[in-house]
Specification:
The complex is a heterodimer. By secondary structure, chain A is an alpha/beta fold. Chain A contains eleven helices and 15 strands. In chain B, helix 4 runs parallel beside helix 7. Chain B starts with a helix and ends with a helix. The chains are: A alpha/beta, B mainly alpha.
Chain lengths: 366, 267
């Protein structure tokens, strides 16, 4: 197996870090599902009435990792990698098929109240809030559920409202909120009891860029303020980059990488994709780097990361460039390629996902 | 305990706020609820009158009293958990409830009681109006009225526990509506709702007295109307207690296994 442990988990100032006992401890955790399986057609349908065939699907294939107090860890992997299943096991929703885990010294799937009161799971959009009543009333309900003392509740609610800018939303019924507004309120509702451990499953999914940034900033702020330990999954690399110093990559249920974010990017995307739009057609592009595609007036190059600045400078100087962008390849794609081929990642250009679109008149960042 | 009371108060408030947003739905629901016993009452009254005033000792006025009290008891004891649980499980909305430090049953009990309180405000005047129309023969003594209160409370608890237990089959069975349907047919005939137990054929009546359904509806009704002997009342309370103990035990077992099943197949 292709597991890389490039460095020990990073420590945060003033916290126990790797030397304290881990908040989350996962050892050989494995989850398989028995999925009913039958062929199509009437005969198979009738047959399945009597004989149910099931197929074993491995969602998590035995993973181990520790998370130290106060760490924010990004949990990466393509769809179906086993991220959500792992979060569900750690939050107590799923029984594992094999392996052990403790969170805050509790075995999650025993669902002890003392544990549930100290953690939160944010998954999807409709968890915390009651659909038909104003947000503030849902918060009151959570106060009763988590037995939050009045003064502490008010303080936390006001802090969360301020951090997330909830003021005008609190009096609106949940069903009248937009997706982004609802997610902000969901998050606040999930944090009123000041959980020490946060499991966030794609908290920014479906949100626009501004809202994503807002949620990201908020999670970072919360984690720092309350010294919370966060395990976060996201399909957006930007979330993980902004929040986590450490990432755990799983794919097909197995641990692929566990280490610092820098090491991950180095390891999995040693290349950048450079896309230029030209004023008129040209040739001899090979001298700038590997040409991935030429589509009309648009040329796409794959350039070693270290050369990206030099290459873009040369492109700008030597070609009639109208527009230029430098992108990191989508991380899921890179990881996928790495895992399936077992060789160096092959970077494919995806212009829509350009992370930095640089106008020609401005200096190109390195 | 104080925390639990606090939780119930918060659930009351949210349920009331939520329910009041659907007044139209509430009214339609209530009409259906009221219409059902009124239909049985009309049918039996007609039969009584056509048979020269009484069926097995039940006059039209007795039927009216029986069904008006049955309406109140049925309204107080019914639950919708068998639909709700299926929805919770199918839609995955059970998951967020499971990661909270309270048993989901509290939410349902609180919602149920709130809904009952809200709808009682309509049911009581309706019963008053129906009393004027049907001229029931209410012969209620002080002691039967006093005994009615715990009998009704036990009936509510029993029906809640039985229906919660049945609802838990949704953990294993994909479509529980068939089970629901069967349950309601059995309930209709053996609880005393469709037919007062006294009018059932002998063996069926004995069966009905042994099974729990009558303890959830017919027993408190007949108790209030003074149709039961002291022996029957004492036996009735004992039966309620016994069935409640069984139902609560089953509920706990089914729920624990169900949640385990839910957690195994992908919550």
């Amino acid at each position: 197996m292709n597991v890389a442990r490039t460095e020990s988990p990073p420590m945060r100032n003033g916290q126990q870090g790797a030397f304290g006992s881990p908040v989350i401890r996962v050892d050989g955790l494995r989850k398989t599902y028995n999925v009913p399986e039958r062929e199509s057609g009437l005969r198979a349908s009738v047959g399945s009435l009597f004989r149910r065939q099931t197929k074993e699907v491995v969602a998590v294939a035995g993973i181990s990792f520790d998370v130290a107090p106060g760490e924010v860890v990004g949990f990466l992997g393509p769809n179906g990698a086993g991220k959500t299943t792992t979060l569900k096991m750690l939050s107590g929703l799923l029984y594992p098929s094999e392996g052990e885990a403790t969170v805050l010294s509790h075995v999650p799937w025993q669902r002890e109240r003392a544990y549930l009161r100290q953690m939160t799971l944010v998954m999807g959009q409709r968890n915390q809030l009651v659909w038909d009543i104003p947000v503030a009333d849902s918060f009151e309900l959570n106060r009763a559920i988590y037995r939050i003392p009045e003064a502490e509740f008010r303080q936390t609610r006001d802090e969360l409202s301020e951090l997330l800018d909830l003021g005008p939303l609190l009096t609106k019924p949940v069903r009248n909120l937009s997706l982004g507004e609802r997610m902000k309120c969901e998050l606040a509702g999930a944090l009123l009891h000041r959980p020490r451990v946060l499991f966030l499953d794609e908290p920014t999914l479906g949100l626009d860029v501004t809202a994503q940034r807002r949620i990201r900033g908020f999670v970072a702020e919360y984690a720092a303020r309350y010294e919370a330990t966060v395990l976060l999954t996201s399909p957006y690399m930007a979330d993980v980059e902004a929040l986590a110093e450490r990432v755990i990559v799983i794919h097909h249920g197995s641990l692929l990488f566990d280490g610092g974010l820098g090491a991950l990017v180095e390891r999995f995307s040693p290349h950048k994709t450079v896309i230029v739009d030209l004023e008129h057609a040209g040739d001899g592009f090979e001298r700038y780097g590997e040409v991935v595609a030429i589509d009309g007036l648009r040329a796409t190059f794959r350039v070693p990361k270290a050369d990206a600045a030099a290459v873009t400078a040369r492109l700008l100087a030597e070609l009639p460039v109208v527009d230029l962008s430098v992108t990191d390849p989508p991380i899921d794609e890179v990881i996928d390629t790495v895992f399936t081929s077992g060789t160096e990642p092959v970077v494919e250009a995806v212009p829509e996902l350009a992370s930095e679109v640089v106008p020609v008149s401005e200096p190109v960042p390195a | 305990m104080i925390d639990l009371l606090h939780l119930y108060r918060a659930e009351f408030k949210t349920t009331i706020a939520g329910q009041l947003q659907y007044r139209g739905y509430l009214v339609i629901w209530l009409i259906g609820l009221i219409l059902e016993p009124v239909i049985y009452l009309s049918v039996w009254s007609t039969v009584a009158i056509s048979q020269g005033g009484a069926v097995d000792g039940f006059t039209a006025a007795d039927f009216a009293a029986y069904y008006l009290v049955a309406l109140v008891v049925s309204q107080a004891t019914f639950t919708w958990i068998m639909w709700e649980m299926e929805y919770w499980i199918r839609q995955g909305t059970l998951s967020p409830l499971l990661v909270r430090p309270v048993h989901p049953i509290h939410r349902h009990i609180a919602n149920n009681l709130t809904f009952k309180l809200l709808t009682m405000a309509v049911v009581v005047p309706v019963v008053a109006v129906l009393s004027i129309v049907f001229q029931p023969n209410f012969t209620i003594s002080a002691w039967s009225a006093a005994a009615f209160v715990p009998a009704l409370a036990m009936a509510m608890a029993l029906r809640f526990a039985v229906e919660w237990t049945l609802a838990s089959t949704a953990f294993w069975v994909t479509r529980v509506s068939a089970i629901n349907q069967l349950y309601f047919v059995v309930f209709l005939f053996l609880s005393g709702y469709g037919v007062p137990l006294a009018l059932l054929p002998g063996p069926v009546r004995v069966l009905a007295e042994w099974l729990p359904f009558y303890r959830m509806l017919g027993f408190p009704v007949e108790l209030l109307l003074g149709r039961l002997s002291m022996n029957q009342v004492v036996y009735g309370f004992a039966a309620q207690l016994g069935w409640l103990a069984i139902a609560v035990t089953l509920l706990n077992v089914m729920w624990a296994r169900g949640v385990r099943q839910y957690s195994a197949v992908g919550a």
